[in-house]
Amino acid sequence: MYDTASYDFENAEQMEQTFRGNTDAYIYSRITNPTVTELQNRMKLFSGAENALCVSSGMAAISNAIVSICQLGDNIISSRYLFGNTYSFFNSTIKSFGIETRFVDLENPDEIEANIDGKTRCIFLEIMTNPQLILFDVEKIAVIAKKYNVILIADNSILTPYIFQSRKYDIDIEVLSNTKFISGGATSIGGTVLTYKSDKWKHIPKLKAEFERYGNEAFSKKLGKEIFRNFGGCLSPNNAYLQLLGLETIALRIDKISDNALKTAEFLETDARVGKVYYTSLKSSEYYPLASHLFNGKSGSLINFELESEEACFKFINSLKMIRRGTNFCDNKSMIIHPSSTIYCENTENDKKLMKINNRMIRLSVGLEDLDDIIQDISQALEKSTV
Fold this sequence. Notes:
Low-confidence stretches: none
CATH superfamily of the largest domain: Type I PLP-dependent aspartate aminotransferase-like (Major domain)
Number of helices: 15
Radius of gyration: 22 Å
CATH architecture of the largest domain: 3-Layer(aba) Sandwich
Helix content: 40-55%
Distance between the termini: 53 Å
CATH class of the largest domain: Alpha Beta
Order of helices and strands: HHEHEHEHEHEHEEHHHHEHEHEEHEH
Mean pLDDT: 96
Number of strands: 12
């Protein structure tokens, strides 16, 4: 692990050539670091991407990617079914930069096309939405993105390239929160921007100069040489090291967690004390056919289920003995949260309704614990919450 801020040069000439970009060498760890570079190389192998840039968080990955292709007067297309901070970034932060977000129904191709114009730069979606667990037909969306030469950006944090492989579905940019499955047990915060082979960069005005110089490397160069450097969202070498360790066991962990999650969802579905249960590997799920087509047979850790009221949800959460009360997911530990009163507490009731967030909803991230222990803890908490 290279836990350092700067690097020694042999002479002044080497320094000059490195700063001019004529020689490959490390300058400063805000820009590049050997440990982070190793993680980026592993992420390219893991995903099959052309390029990988590791950053300080999943939100840094999203913001760096968007700002690399959008400028004043541009717009993006997105679903409203988003992680809370992503929604806030689209609905508030980039609005102040003069970038409009057009929230549409991504399950309706006609509505997507009707909202695209000459200033549309990208379509953004979560492959599996958090916490609603909605799936979109990414193949149909990719056809639309290609037709109009707009960039397709996918947040694949819930699944990772192990379950869903973006490179097979004409996705141009994939963003990940490394904090989830990749970190190997919530040991660190981080994110990754993965870039796939694309011929769309020449159609993005903000990338004009980069395309003339670098061709199809235009986005990666804009991102790495300007936006990432100037925003300063660098990944620490210590966090990169921890995420390298996490990658070593990611397949084993996702397999076990997905199996635990499916069996837990099946248990919840048969319990009369529980209302609707959402998990895409359940055969009763409306998204089961699409999940079976897109994924590798797994659906990850997240389950969404409903109880009769917010009061019942709070009683249930407070009665758990083993499952942790926390906001992370895809952790080694099972974790639970009431989204409406926490992640979405700053949103209006109308916003929540549009995002399909209600106060009866609980998000459970199933972990690596023994399945019997998970189900026993849920069962005893349900018993107490329905008294």
